[in-house]
Amino acid sequence: MAKLSLIFALYIATLCVLRTDANIAAGENTPLFRDLCALVALADHQIVESHEAASAISQAQEILQLNMTISEDAWRLMFRKKADGTEWHEEMPARYSNHAEWKALWPAWLKSAKAAKDDESAKAVLKRFGGRELTPQQKKALWKRIQPIAARALAAITTLEELRKAEESEAAKQAQKTIQEAVYGEAKTSAETLTTGGTKLIKGSAKSNTGAACSGSGSTHPASTVVATLLCICSTSSDEQKACVNPSTPLTQWTDGQDGAVSKWDEFKKHCVVNSQATASGPEIPHRLAAIRESLKSSWGSAYLGAFRQTNCEGDQGNGICVQYTGYDAKTPTAFEAVDWVKNLTKTATALEQAEEAKKKSAIIGQQTKQEIEATKAEALIASLETEVQAEKIQPVGSQPPTSSLEKQLKAENECNAAGDDQKKCKDLEGKGCKYDASKTAGQKCTLDEEAKKAAQKAKEETEGKDGKTNTNTTGSNSFAIDRAPLLLAVLLF
């Protein structure tokens, strides 16, 4: 029994040796040909840019615009460089540096303040939420009611801005162009004429035969495109022309390398048919690349894609109808991974995958924000029906609730700032505590003097002392909203 097993093992080993020494058979590279053809087809696939995050941001901004519209005048005026709204503080002024948490929120607040800069703008905002005119008391009541909603809208915008970076990344925007260049070496489709001479399909110069066109390493590899790779694994300089396909009319030999690459592709592309609309580019690229990577075979310091027997990839059925990647190391496979078409398709696949994931997450937030808008409309209706409201004066999410003294200080500062760098106008406002300081930043030389600020601060402290406590729900953070309404949108996604 042992003797029979030994004889059988020797027989199998002999078959393997014979198979290795045998000429390359018809159809041996067909599976690889199909994977490469699928990548070629993606050059014709229309990739539509998505803007789901931007759309959801716009919806959330509507809530913040309403929040700003019904806020106290002193708060809204704080964002203006000039009282008439012709100039704005695009960045948080240094005088508010003691409110460190405001800096991150300033851009969103500023955008809302600009949207509610005048009565007509305010009416337009209110119209979107029911169209009712509200009394000052009703506005205060509504403002208080929507704070948890505004907090979630602000958190949603922060999350969506990050998602938009992935969804609208430059790599995602350029995906179609990158795919076409990876396939043809230039941004063209299958219907367009390729550059003559094969200089775009095959990298470098003097690649005058199959062996020269199909051997190299990394970023300098001549077979730098999907089409060039396909030609190397399907075309031969010998009699066997059926490594990939078996047409009724025999294919011609490829012996002139780069010069004949375009005409050779014209002969092959009629057999390279894949429905380019069948699959999305994002998942299709990594799927095909994985199959191609699995086809790689390494031997004596090189890797080979396609049928290889010995010596090189010169298109000979007794040696190799393949692509050779010299200096290949499985641990650091840059000889293959750094080839132009492989590297660029890999990066593009990652960008498209991230864009699709961001799109899905943004769509979820967008649906939730639509529900928040409907809830805000309901709150606006309730507020419009209230006739007597005892509403305390508080300010938007992420800041200290303004006491009357702080409101007065903000209003006084805005009046001073409105004078800009005009020393005469500033002097006329001295009775209101304004002082001209030439050392201040341009546009802010007229400012509230320190004595007036100290007086306002003292009044604030005295007010808090009478209350016996400081409202800690919002001190130094966004906790006013966070304590009452967790930031569900971000939590659901991350």
Automatic annotation (TrEMBL):
Residue ranges, compositional bias (Basic and acidic residues): 447-469
Subcellular location per the Swiss-Prot or TrEMBL entry: Cell membrane
Coiled coil residues, start to end: 368-395
Record field: compositional bias (Low complexity): 470-479
Keywords: Cell membrane, Coiled coil, Glycoprotein, GPI-anchor, Lipoprotein, Membrane, Signal
UniProt keyword annotation of Lyase present: no
InterPro entries: Trypano_VSG_B_N_dom, VSG_C_dom_sf
Signal peptide: 1-27
Principal localisation: membrane
Membrane topology: Lipid-anchor; GPI-anchor
Any one cellular-component term (Gene Ontology): plasma membrane
Residue span of region Disordered: 444-480
Domain Trypanosome variant surface glycoprotein B-type N-terminal, chain residue ranges per copy: 12-366
Job description of the protein: VSG forms a coat on the surface of the parasite. The trypanosome evades the immune response of the host by expressing a series of antigenically distinct VSGs from an estimated 1000 VSG genes.
Protein name (database record): Variant surface glycoprotein 516
Organism the protein comes from: Trypanosoma brucei
